[in-house]
Amino acid sequence: MGGCVDRASPPAATTAEILATQGAAQAFFQQDRLEEARVEYEQLVEMVPSDASGHAGLGMVALRSGNVEAAEKHLIAARERSPSDPELVVALANARSSLGDGDSARALLTRSLALDSTHTRTLWALADIARLDGQPVESWLVWLERVVALVPGNLAARVELSGAYLEANALDQALAELEMLRQIAPDFPPRARTAFEKTERAIQVGDRSSAVAQLANFRLDFEVTAQYQEGVADLRPLSGEIVGIPQLYFSFLTSLRVQEPEVVLNSMRFTNASELAGFGELQSVSEEHGGAALFALGDFDGDEDEDLLWTVGGETSLLRVDFGQFVVDDDLGSMLTPEVGAIAWGDFDDDRRLDMWLGGRESALYHNESDGLFSEILLPAEGQNFGKANEVFFADLDQDGDLDVFEARSGLNRFYRNDGDKTFVELSERFGLAGPDDADTKDAAFADLDGDLDLDVVLAEGSHGLRVLLNARGGRFSDLADRVVVDGGENATAVALGDIDNDGLVDVLVAGSQEIRLLKGQVDSVSGLEENSRTIIEFEDLVPRDLLLVDFDNDGYLDLAVGGSSEVGAGARLFHNIGGGNFSVTDHLLPDVPSDIRQLDFFDYNEDGDADLIILDSDGQPMLLRNDGGNANHFIQLQLVGLGDGSRKNNRFGIGARVEIRAGDLYQVHTVTDPTVLIGLNGHLKADVIRVHWPNGVAQDLYFPGTDQDLIEQQTLKGSCPLLYVWDGESFTFVGDIMWKSALGMPLGILGGDGQQAFAPSYPSQEYRRLPPGLLRPRDGEFVLQVTEELWETIYVDGLSLVAVDHPDSVDVYVNERFIPPAPTELELWRVGDRWSPRTASDGRGVDQSSALEARDFSYVSTFRTGRYQGIAEPHELILDLGEKAASGDVTLFLTGWIFPTDASINMAMAQSDDLQSHFPALDVIGLDGKWETVIPDLGFPSGKDKTVIADLRGLFPTEDRRVRIHTNLMVYWDEAFFTVGSSHLATTEQRVTEVSATSADLHYRGFSREFRKGGRYGPHWFDYDSVTVEPRWHDLAGEYTRFGDVTELVESGDDRYVIANAGDEITLRFSADEFPDLPQGWMRTFLIYSDGWVKDGDLNIATGDRADPLPFRDQTRYPYGPEESYDHVDARRETAETYLTRTIKPPR
């Protein structure tokens, strides 16, 4: 047969085949199996020659192989197909730089930056080139500053920026950067910590050369840590070895990005990648060898790869990821754990290293040491016969900032309260979490079900059905009487929590032996559980054992994976969320899996932005099901970074936080249960905003987040009493806070063994606050003041007046503004004639502080190191030598400054341990034996911002030595210190006091002023009245508030008839200037503000901190008071409430 023969073209590859090829190529590349990766990438080029991904992959393989010329060829081809992709530009610049063409590399990067000014690896590369070229530090410092602004959680970037600031002799910026590094990094290894502290001290005393040397020592030890290395890998510098680049950033096909949802779903597949992951090398062990088969995912070594804690056959092993494969960690080896029934990772000591919990009849906790080894932590001895553990989780169930542990068990459950000092107390009975002793609790989960910002617990209790335990705070959980019974009461085997329909409310899924039921949010104490639940999935061939909510196609809706046992089919089932709380079967996306699945979970194994599944069969054999194509929709990988030393209020990974995401019309809510949250964005390129409600209830917004986003907790002032602004002749100027002595419902500690709490005194705050001379000016014949509530509080303003103290202009007048417990207050005026500065002033390390204390200029003594919590520092001293001017001993000392306070939840945390105690400022003098002795044990501290503490030192000096020492471990920042000699108080002939009530007072909504730190990062939180936002900022305390309008009669005097104001409210007070007498010649006027009232913080550990009631009154014996007392018992109070309390603030949802 002659002539030409028609040759048929090979059939076009399906999208699923293309995605599988790409997934295999990337897996081989991660494992450094370069030849196999090259073959797969070549096949990918044949399949989709117009796409950049195959060419990019070949370029990266060539780079890693050291063939730079070939790499350049492939990367140019990739860039022709995707000219605006900055990753391709960085890779090509890498190749050019390696070929010695630095100018071309710089030009490429500069052009790329014009297309994407936020691409961190481009910015880092430009900084690296500038540094290597020997350019001035200022030329590459600007690039590093932009990198840190974009990826604030990258530790390598912060270390580099600190060094650059030192090189530029910008010592203050270097110190600020190091302080932030200390707050966000895992706790440093001992030798690195020593060098770090020496670096800080050298900067504080201005010794730049020593600081540079000590920072170099710190880097020697810190740079070998996994967290630092991962930061470098994320930035991928141009300098250094090309071979060994850890991952491929071209993680999805450019031609497949952002397709219609149906296209994505039909194209994707899960591929059995167990062999690639190294699971084929693991020995399968049947249950007949004893013990349960379990696993827990967690990045224990901080390299951003999820490792595996694996228990099977009575042994527990740790599998770390090494070049994309799970291998047994030789340092840990295998531990005999015959009775372990539940395992989990969690950072119980807040060092940003995951610790290991093994739940058995006798549970065990292993602390992750800085060297990668684990040490056992002693747990309390068990006093009861607990059954086997079925589930365990870490969560902050007492809202004190650290992670507690809950174990679901057969029989009584266990709850271990974390006391913050590496000790635990078992308190399941006291907290109401033990449950009935005949229950068989198979599963447990946590989330905020009722929208009140604390964590609730849901239990699958076998034949007892579903139990919901709402967090009542104060160390108590309330048990809803209703139950959801599944399968006619046969068994409740598993539970999962999540926002199924994206309405912002957490829904509950519970599995029985034949069905899955959905309980639509919102659960509360009123609605019945059974009435709000319905069956959404019924099984004929599967008995469910595990439920997993996971958005496997990144469309922004939580899908469902179910693991269990089947006699006729697969033991894993997959369901796609189609909206409205309904699911469609998508089992065809799964490969063949065993018929009996014990457990399943998800993680991003190959770091390509979609959820890969890991399942465990009945023999304890893990399987990896790689997701090929789920990342065609865009995504965010979010990591929360809670602050450490100096501001610790939340656990360091943000476990338990509520995360809200909005991208266009797509809205999602997630509860953080793992250090990394994978969030699908459907067809949106980026999210518009992420709002995080941290576990302590404080909200934080992040606009237009990146794909791999660290969100670092802000150091936020959430409670500090109402704020005062005065008219200064041109504008309203912030003065400070008032009513600082009141702290309604503030816990002070725990009394005895029954868990009863002690609370702050309940009398109203009565205080006089001095206004700086000349600040208050009349406006159209009136003095105008604004009292605002801008923090997470409710205030009860019972009396406000303006006090004029007239006195000779040769003296000044002060009031003692130190904090004392609330009590009836009388006006005491202190006289300041000639004022003298101390001869010398130094801190406890001998660093001179004279310049910081010489004037009231918002320059503070700040050389002490902060401690673990906000408000607590390492013990520090201020030593003043008053010198010969104080020789007579007739001395009064004036100290002005501010305090960064703790809060209710921190107080609760500290009350749990004797190791964590606050020590109020005390004053010492030199005794007869030449040693320091305390003469004023209760010196006190400024009651808020920019206030003065006065100490009468008459008769307190036993020798001629006029040195005094002030010592504390509170975060008190002193701004000015001076003393007077002679008369301490104004004589009657030197004073005229006029107190005036407001001629009008108006309550209205205003909003929230812009907040900043006055005097730099060590200064108090300050407020700009002229810059205001009206959007709500806090989770309001619910209840009845004073209606807007005239409230003049309510603030005239302290009579329990008061204004109740919410966050965002403002009271405008006007005082007639004509009511103040004319000044005698040679006299001047000092104004004081007198305030009377109460403040209740919204902190989650404040008693009744979720609502405005019960209403306080002067004669109450305690707060909160019991049923024998009532605000309404007095007719005048009841009538005032009926008239004025007509504005209802509902609980936020």
Provide mean pLDDT, rounded. Answer: 89
Q: β content, as a range?
A: 25-35%
**Biggest sheet overview:** 6 strands, antiparallel
Uncertain residue segments: 1-8, 237-258, 285-289
Radius of gyration: 33 Å
The dominant shape is globular
Q: Given the helix and strand composition, which structural class is it?
A: alpha+beta
Terminal Cα span = 81 Å
Strands of the widest sheet, in order across it, are 38-37-42-61-55-59
Tell me the number of strands. Answer: 63
Number of helices: 18
Could you walk me through the main structural features you see in this protein, from its secondary elements to its overall organization?
The structure is a single chain. With 1149 residues, this protein is of the alpha+beta class. A hairpin with a 4-residue loop joins β12 and β13. Helices cover 18% and strands 32% of the residues.
SSE inventory with pairings:
Layout: H1 15-30, H2 34-47, H3 52-65, H4 68-81, H5 86-98, H6 102-115, H7 120-132, H8 137-150, H9 155-167, H10 171-184, H11 190-204, H12 208-222, H13 226-235, H14 261-267, E1 269-272, E2 294-298, E3 307-312, E4 315-322, E5 325-328, E6 334-336, E7 342-346, E8 355-359, E9 364-368, E10 374-377, E11 389-395, E12 404-409, E13 414-418, E14 424-426, H15 428-431, E15 443-447, E16 456-460, E17 466-471, E18 477-479, E19 494-498, E20 507-511, E21 515-519, E22 533-538, E23 543-550, E24 559-565, E25 572-579, E26 582-585, E27 597-603, E28 612-617, E29 622-628, E30 635-641, E31 658-663, E32 666-671, E33 676-680, E34 689-693, E35 699-703, E36 708-712, E37 723-727, E38 732-737, E39 747-751, E40 756-759, E41 765-770, E42 782-788, E43 793-808, E44 812-814, E45 830-832, E46 840-843, H16 850-853, E47 872-881, E48 891-899, H17 904-911, E49 922-926, E50 932-936, E51 947-952, E52 963-970, E53 972-981, E54 992-997, E55 1000-1005, E56 1008-1013, E57 1021-1029, E58 1039-1041, E59 1045-1046, E60 1059-1061, E61 1065-1072, E62 1083-1097, H18 1131-1140, ...
Parallel strand pairs: 30-36
Antiparallel strand pairs: 1-29, 2-3, 3-4, 4-5, 4-6, 7-8, 8-9, 9-10, 11-12, 12-13, 13-14, 15-16, 16-17, 17-18, 19-20, 20-21, 21-22, 23-24, 24-25, 25-26, 27-28, 28-29, 30-33, 31-32, 31-34, 34-35, 37-38, 37-42, 39-40, 41-62, 42-61, 43-54, 43-60, 43-62, 44-45, 46-47, 47-52, 48-51, 48-53, 49-50, ...
Helix pairs in contact: 1-2, 1-3, 2-3, 3-4, 4-5, 5-6, 6-7, 7-8, 8-9, 9-10, 9-12, 10-11, 11-12
